[in-house]
Structure formats: structure tokens, C-alpha cells
Specification:
heterodimer, A: alpha/beta, Rossmann fold, 9-stranded mixed β-sheet, two-stranded antiparallel sheet, globular, B: 386 residues, alpha+beta, Butyryl-Coa Dehydrogenase, subunit A, domain 1, Butyryl-CoA Dehydrogenase, subunit A, domain 2, Butyryl-CoA Dehydrogenase, subunit A, domain 3, 4-stranded antiparallel β-sheet, 10 strands, binds flavin-adenine dinucleotide, AcylCoA_DH/ox_N (chain B), flavoprotein (chain B), Butyryl-CoA dehydrogenase (chain B), FAD (chain B), oxidoreductase (chain B)
């Protein structure tokens, strides 16, 4: 089984983001960037499949600026076999990403595309689903467990308040959730070896995909500042305050 | 080998991530329990940390000194006990083999050292021979195709976990001083080798030191590293490199403590304002920063020169003297900036204060570095090189 794993370069999850003064977005200047954490989980899963002998090749693809190559290298250091960078400095919306990925799929013919359920920068949670629609492939979203079952895949999904298990014919789209696995640390030797793995460089135009945005961001705002607490005289007052606030 | 900048950045980033995510959260636990959890040791093995200074053909990373120093800056930014787990394999425990070992010796031991499956220690110090290491009295007497070792080594880091030791012992009992000393690889399971109980010590709980005792321990003659009589030279070459590594670890701790000081000083208010606004606090933090930066520059310069093949004995001693003494001052100031909290264990600052004290003692005390610096200068002057 050949696995295609798209990865996105996003603001590192440890960074405290600041909204730009003009509220058009967040400040990206000198901010640490890393692989979207959900994508680390999908890379880990693909690499485990390869180690278990169920996957034959793990191809990493990223759409983004030149530096997204570092993100691909990280995935290659974790165990991916080769990379494809689709280089663009433009903002690429989920639909455009899905359209490009559909073309990559046509070229690469993977049996499985393993995506993060969402990217932590825009929290769109759309790309996997859109790709499934464009390809007319079955999808298993929010995967908690993935098992190969003959030519099919059994995917246990996280749903509100429980789990749901679905069976997908391959080729298929699976998006991964947080609890699927704990991604490994790429070892230092593998980081060095990753430098020698091939990365193909392309542009959206090579796939004939129009990536011009269809959405415009109206406004980005900081979350409300947490308000100061209140000190009360005694337990009775506390209880009555909590009751009137509907907290108990 | 010159390192690719992108690879170097990725390596450093990964070590930083390991330190931040796996070590920093359990510093207090390691201090209290005097043990680095096996799971973390295993992660270090998987990461490849044990092999960073072993050649690639033996499964290591063969980092140049400059990159090793950058890694050590990162490893220093948590309790130094974590670094110590892999420290002897990276440094003093492996380098005699790397620098002077025969192909057969390298083949036999370096792959295990690189993976962390073998722990290697360095045994020079004795009860009666510390700073004056050249006066050591552990004997290695040739008997057929073996050397028979007798004597006691003291304060040997990781001895309780070691599978092999680099041992300096006197092969020529009639030649006093450094010239009669040879270096050997001694395997832990050699009959006649025993290890004492770990010492209770001031800091770096989680890292252990013990006596290593040799009682008629028969070591194969092919385990000699270098030639007979070269053991002291071997030990000193190993220490030149070790001193740069230790300097970088100490400077890593300084960087961490500066961060702690600044963050605390911005939060803590006295006299109606954050103490960061008090100029005497600023002075302590500024001095710490300037000294730490100076140490960093010294380390990078000495490391690059070593990579270029220069003899760095003078530079390594100068660097170790300055970097470790600076670290001691920084740790003292950190306690001061934290006030009472600096003395109370919950804040972790007093633990760092204790941990860093050893940097000024081992791999040559500060006084020994001064002696080496003066000796090297005199030597250079006499040779018309100063
Ligand atoms: C935690 C720890 C880990 C260690 N790990 C190792 C290890 O892995 N392998 C190993 O072989 N050893 C190890 N050591 C030993 C360490 O290297 C020695 O403790 C150190 O070299 C000092 O020797 P000493 O303790 O005998 O002190 P001494 O040599 O007795 O020194 C006592 C004092 O006298 C000073 N002094 C000595 N000679 C002179 C002089 N000529 N002029 C001026 N002052 C002088 C010293 O600077 C010091 O201040 C370790 C020690 C510790 C505490
Ligand atoms: C073991 C121990 C025993 C103690 N016992 C007692 C006790 O029995 N009774 C009791 O009442 N207290 C006791 N204390 C508290 C002790 O007196 C305080 O910790 C000490 O006065 C410092 O106050 P602080 O810890 O709040 O530090 P802070 O006042 O927060 O000081 C932090 C740092 O800021 C500096 N600083 C503060 N203001 C200025 C300024 N204006 N300009 C320049 N620098 C400034 C300080 O010098 C220090 O370096 C004890 C503390 C300890 C650790």
C-alpha cells in the first residue's frame, strides 16, 4: 500500500500568537514555525504502517513557501521515503489545497491519503473531506485507530461522546485525530540521513490549479482577556454567587 | 567535516525539543529520586545522543566540535544530570578509543558506545591522585599476553552503570610521574573488577560516581590504547575535548538561569514595581548575560579552531576556567534575584546552584586550568611563539 501524507508548515504550537494591530491576521514575523501537530500524527501512522509491512512507500507532500521544505525534511527524518514540495508564497485555501492534492493523487496513485484532521493555524478541518469529494473516494475522518483489513481499512473514529467504526474500501482518505498515536522524535542520525532523501519541487501552475482565494478574512481578534476573580466573605456567599451564575 | 547549516539547525532544534518536552518537566523528580527514569534514557538512545562524537562508520554522528558544543548548550538547559547519562559516552568515556584506538578496538566497542547499549566511563582519579593525576599508583603489570591491574579509582562518573572503563594505570613502576602511565580498555565483567556504592554528593542527583577497584584483574594486552607510556598523553587529549564540552554544558545552564532570572524579575513586584526595574537587579542580570555571551564566544572559537586541527590546550583550559567560573557566578546571582524563593527547593534554583558547583572541579579544577594556561604561555614564550 502506497501512502501519501500531506503536511503543513504552521506556527509552532508553543508560540503565543499576537494579532496584528490592523486585525488582518496574526503576526508571523520571526515566529517559530513547525509541522502541524496533527500532520506529525499522520506521518507517524504512515511510518508505523511501513514498519509493520502494510505500507510500501510513504510520500510526503507540502504546499507552501520554500521553507516548507524543512517541514518535509522533518517528515522524512521520521521515516518518510521522499517528498514533493509545491512551492507558493500565496495563501492557499483548503479547496485549492484539495484540488492540488487531487492532481498529486492522480500522478502518484496512492492507496491511502493520510491527513491531519485540521491545521492548528486556521482550524479549517476541510481539506481531507474536500479531497474525498473531489476524488469520489471513501473517507474516515478523526481516526482514533486504523487497521488494514484485506484490501479495506477499518477506521475507528472519534465522535462526540464515543467511537464509531467504519470500513473503507481503498483507495481512501483518512484524517487523523489527536489520540491515534504519539509521534516519535526523529533521531539525530535520521535527521542527517533525511538530507539525502529526494524532494521534488513543483508549483501550483504545474498542476493547472487556480489557487486564487475565494474567501476574505474580515477580522481577527484576540480572545477576551480573562477577568480578575472576586473574593467573597464566606462559603455561604460563594455558594449563592455560584448558584446565581448558574455554575452549580 | 563541515556541517550543513540546515542539518545542524534541525539537529539542534530536535535536542532543544527533547530537553524542553522530556527533561525540564521532571527535573524536580530526578533531583528527589536520584535517578533519571529508564524511559528517558531510552529516548536518549533512540535520539542517538550517545553516539554524537563517535565516527559514522561505527554508528555515530561524528559531529564536529562546533556542532557538539551547540548540542551541549541545549543539553545544559536542564538539570545537568540528564546530560551526564550520555555524557561519558559522548566525551571522556569514548574519546580515548576514538582518538587513539586501533581499528579492532573501535570495531569491538564503538558501535555499542554509539547506540548507548554500552556505557563507557573514564577512570583517572585515585584516592591519592586527583589534580596530580600523573602520580597515580594503580598498577598494570605485564604478564604474558595480559596486564594485571591492581589499585583503586575514585569518583568515577557512571561507574555503577558502566560496561567498560578507560583506565589509566602505571605500566612502568620504576618511572614515576606521567611517563610511566598507559591507558587501557577494561571491561566491567573482567574478574577482579568491582565497583563501590554511589557517593552521596552535593548536586546532580541522578548522576552517580563510585570507586572502581582492581584486584588482580587480568586485562588482555590488546586492550592497551596507544603505546605503553602514552597513557597520560591519551588522557590529556581526551580532557582537552572534554573541557570544551563541559564549558558548553555549563554555559547552557547559565543561559537557562538567565531566562529564569528575567522571567522571575518581570513577574515579582517589590516596592510597587517589578524587581526587573530595580537597577541592582538589572546589574546582576546584565553581568550574567555579558559573561555568558563571552563564554559562548570563547567556546565557539576554541571549538572551530580544534575542528581546523589547531592544538587547543591553552584555549580549552582558558575556556573551561572562564565558562565554569562564570556559571558559578550566574547561579549565585540567580539565587539572589529569586530572594527567599531562590533558597527554597520548589523553585529549582537552589538545585541548579548545587548542580553547577562541580563544573569548577572535575576535568581539572580551576586552579589546574590556571596552571595549564601559565605553563602553555611559558612554553610558547620559550619557543618564540608568544
Ligand atoms: C561528581 C564528580 C565526578 C567525577 N568524575 C570523574 C570521572 O569520571 N573520572 C575521573 O577520573 N575523575 C572524576 N572525578 C574526579 C575529579 O576529576 C577530581 O575530583 C578533580 O580532578 C580534583 O581532584 P581531587 O578531588 O583529588 O582534589 P585535589 O587534587 O586534592 O585538590 C584539592 C584542592 O587543591 C587544589 N590544588 C591541587 N593541586 C594544586 C596546585 N598544584 N596548585 C594549586 N592548587 C592545587 C585543587 O585545585 C583543589 O582546589 C569526579 C569528581 C566528582 C566530584
Ligand atoms: C530559610 C529562610 C528563612 C527565613 N526566615 C524568616 C523568618 O523567620 N521571618 C521572616 O519574617 N522572614 C523569613 N524569611 C524571609 C526572608 O527574610 C525574605 O526571603 C527576604 O527578606 C527576601 O525577601 P523575598 O524572598 O520576598 O525576596 P524579594 O524581596 O522578592 O527580593 C528578590 C530580589 O530583589 C531584590 N530587591 C528587592 N527590592 C529591591 C530594590 N528596591 N532594589 C534592588 N533590589 C531589590 C532583592 O535584594 C532580591 O535580590 C526567611 C527566608 C528563608 C529563605
Amino acid at each position: 500500500m502506497k501512502v501519501l501524507v500531506p503536511v503543513k508548515r504552521v506556527i509552532d504550537y508553543n508560540v503565543k500568537v499576537r494579532v496584528k494591530p490592523d486585525q488582518t491576521g496574526v503576526d508571523l514575523a520571526n515566529v517559530k514555525m513547525s509541522m502541524n501537530p496533527f500532520d506529525e500524527i499522520s506521518v507517524e501512522e504512515a511510518v508505523r504502517m511501513k514498519e509493520a509491512g502494510t505500507a510500501t512507500e510513504v510520500v510526503i507532500v507540502s504546499i507552501g513557501p520554500k521553507q516548507a521544505q524543512e517541514t518535509i525534511r522533518t517528515a522524512l527524518a521520521m521515516g518518510g521515503d521522499r517528498g514533493i514540495l509545491i512551492n507558493t508564497d500565496e495563501t492557499v485555501e483548503p479547496l485549492a489545497v484539495a484540488k492540488i492534492l487531487a492532481k498529486v493523487v492522480a500522478e502518484e496513485s496512492p492507496d491511502l491519503v493520510l491527513l491531519g484532521k485540521q491545521a492548528i493555524d486556521d482550524d479549517s478541518n476541510q481539506t481531507g473531506q474536500m479531497l474525498a469529494a473531489l476524488l469520489d473516494w471513501p473517507q474516515g475522518t478523526f481516526a482514533y485507530k486504523i487497521e488494514k483489513d484485506g484490501d479495506a481499512l477499518t477506521v475507528t473514529r472519534e465522535v462526540d461522546g464515543g467511537l464509531q467504526t467504519v470500513k473503507l474500501a481503498t483507495p481512501a482518505i483518512v484524517t487523523v485525530d489527536l489520540r491515534l498515536n504519539e509521534p516519535r522524535y526523529a533521531s539525530l542520525p535520521n535527521i542527517m540521513k533525511a538530507k539525502k532523501k529526494p524532494i521534488d519541487e513543483k508549483a501550483p501552475g504545474d498542476y493547472g490549479v487556480d489557487i486564487s482565494p475565494r474567501l476574505s478574512v474580515v477580522k481577527v481578534t484576540e480572545p477576551p482577556v480573562r477577568e480578575a476573580g472576586e473574593k467573597v466573605e464566606d462559603v455561604a456567599t460563594l455558594v449563592s454567587k455560584l448558584k446565581s451564575a448558574g455554575a452549580i | 567535516m563541515a556541517f550543513d547549516a540546515e542539518i545542524r539547525a534541525a539537529l539542534i532544534e530536535q535536542v532543544r525539543r527533547f530537553v524542553t518536552e522530556k527533561c525540564v518537566p521532571i527535573e524536580a523528580q530526578v533531583g528527589d529520586e536520584d535517578e533519571v527514569p529508564q524511559a528517558v534514557v531510552d529516548e536518549m538512545k533512540n535520539l542517538g545522543l550517545f553516539g554524537i562524537a563517535v565516527p559514522e562508520e561505527y554508528g555515530g554522528l561524528a559531529l564536529d566540535m562546533e556542532t557538539e558544543a551547540l548540542v551541549a548548550f541545549e543539553l545544559g538547559q536542564t538539570s545537568p544530570a540528564f546530560r551526564s547519562v550520555a555524557g561519558t559516552n559522548i566525551g571522556i568515556g569514548s574519546q580515548a578509543l576514538v582518538l587513539f584506538g586501533t581499528d579492532a578496538q573501535k570495531e569491538k566497542w564503538l558501535p555499542g558506545i554509539a547506540s548507548g547499549d554500552l556505557i563507557a566511563s573514564f577512570a583517572l582519579t585515585e584516592p591519592e591522585a586527583g589534580s596530580d593525576a600523573g602520580s597515580l599508583t594503580t598498577k598494570a603489570i605485564r604478564d604474558g599476553d595480559h596486564y594485571v591491574l591492581n589499585g583503586t579509582k575514585r569518583y568515577i562518573t557512571n561507574a555503577n552503570k558502566a560496561d567498560l572503563f578507560t583506565v589509566m594505570a602505571r605500566t612502568d613502576v620504576d618511572t614515576p610521574g606521567p611517563k610511566g602511565v598507559s591507558a587501557f580498555v577494561v571491561e566491567r565483567d573482567t574478574p577482579g573488577v568491582s565497583v563501590g556504592v554511589p557517593e552521596k554528593k552535593m548536586g546532580q542527583q541522578g548522576a552517580h560516581i563510585c570507586d572502581v577497584i582492581f584486584e588482580d584483574a587480568r586485562v588482555p594486552a590488546e586492550n592497551i590504547i596507544g603505546k605503553e607510556g602514552e597513557g597520560f598523553k591519551v588522557a590529556m587529549s581526551v580532557l582537552d575535548k572534554g573541557r570544551l564540552h563541559i564549558s558548553a554544558v555549563a554555559t547552557g545552564v547559565s543561559k537557562r538561569l538567565i531566562r529564569e532570572m528575567v522571567n522571575y524579575a518581570l513577574e515579582r513586584k517589590q516596592f510597587g514595581t517589578a524587581i526587573m526595574n530595580h537597577q541592582m537587579i538589572q546589574a546582576m542580570i546584565a553581568d550574567s548575560q555579558a559573561e555568558t555571551y563571552a563564554a559562548e564566544c570563547m567556546i565557539m572559537d576554541a571549538a572551530r579552531r580544534r575542528d581546523a586541527g589547531e592544538d587547543v590546550t591553552l584555549l580549552a583550559s582558558s575556556t573551561k576556567l572562564f565558562a565554569t567560573e562564570a556559571c558559578g557566578r550566574v547561579a549565585d546571582r540567580a539565587v539572589q534575584v529569586f530572594g527567599g524563593a531562590g533558597y527554597v527547593s520548589d523553585y529549582g534554583i537552589e538545585r541548579f546552584y548545587r548542580d553547577v558547583r562541580i563544573f569548577r572541579l572535575y576535568e581539572g579544577t580551576s586552579q589546574i586550568q590556571q596552571i595549564i594556561i601559565a605553563r602553555e604561555l611559558a612554553k610558547a614564550a620559550k619557543a618564540g611563539r608568544l
